[in-house]
Amino acid sequence: MTNRRDFLKNASLLTLGGLVAGKASVSAATAASAPISAQASKNFGLQTYSLSRELAEDVAGGLKKVKAMGYSYIELAGYNQAEGKIGQVSMADYKKMADDAGLKIVSSHLNPPVRGAYSAENRGEISEFWKKAADHHAAIGCEKIIQPGQPSTPSVEQAKLIGEVFNDAGRIAKAAGLSWGYHNHDGEFARIVPGGTEAITGRRMPRPVPEGMMVIEEAYMEYTDPSLVFFELDVYWTVMGQNDPVEFMKKHPTRINKILHIKDKYALGQSGMMNFENIFKQAYANGVSQFIVELESVASTGMTQFEGAKASADYLKNASFVR
Ligand code: MG
Question: pTM of the prediction?
Fold first, then answer.
């Protein structure tokens, strides 16, 4: 059975554009020799989830540290609608702390409270959530609201319903002057069929390939209006979904053209499994203008969350392919 470790090992033998292992670490080593101080400020931001525990201890001070690392904007996580807070901080206070630090809040991750079970019955409830969320975020000048949690999607029919619910959210955001996006993990690269009862992962691919089979992420694209819904591709989770983020961006230039999640298994450039040079080149070609660094778990490498964020910023500051 192919587990994740085997996949990573096998991936290192392939020459997929997004995966060329070894190449990324060579780039990192080369980049590390360039003087950081010589670099002008570059265009990248940080998803605050990356610092969740450590940032919560001192948000105002922590955001100043983030700015000093070279990040120029942030994407929020931890929206609490009932209390109008981000984590334990009121949204107005958070905005002030970000302003004081010199960081722009460009986007925010949030999920409607329906546990991923979308239906005709709770469609209205989901819309109510987005209405309030759009107002809360418009009030702090945050222009993008993004859903990072995947609704349960066992069939093409359910993907169509989800597409309509996403369009509702996009319409609501647009009316408030915001834009609405969807952020993937690896589950969106499973496949669905008409009348299906569960998503099909790569290893269980039926032969012959069933009629009408779709990749879930592409079904979401198919059933949403491009003027209402954009896609914030998480390049690491795309690789974990056994897809090449470069090829995927190439295939969908009009849907993945605003904002990206730049992520690695550890701090950026540490795993050797992400070819960020090719990823950035393609992202610029698609017109992506915002790059959000996100860290999952740096603890296993002995780093604190702040150290991981700094190492990632240094990697991007030193990378000649990052503008
Ligand atoms: Mg992400």
Answer: 0.88
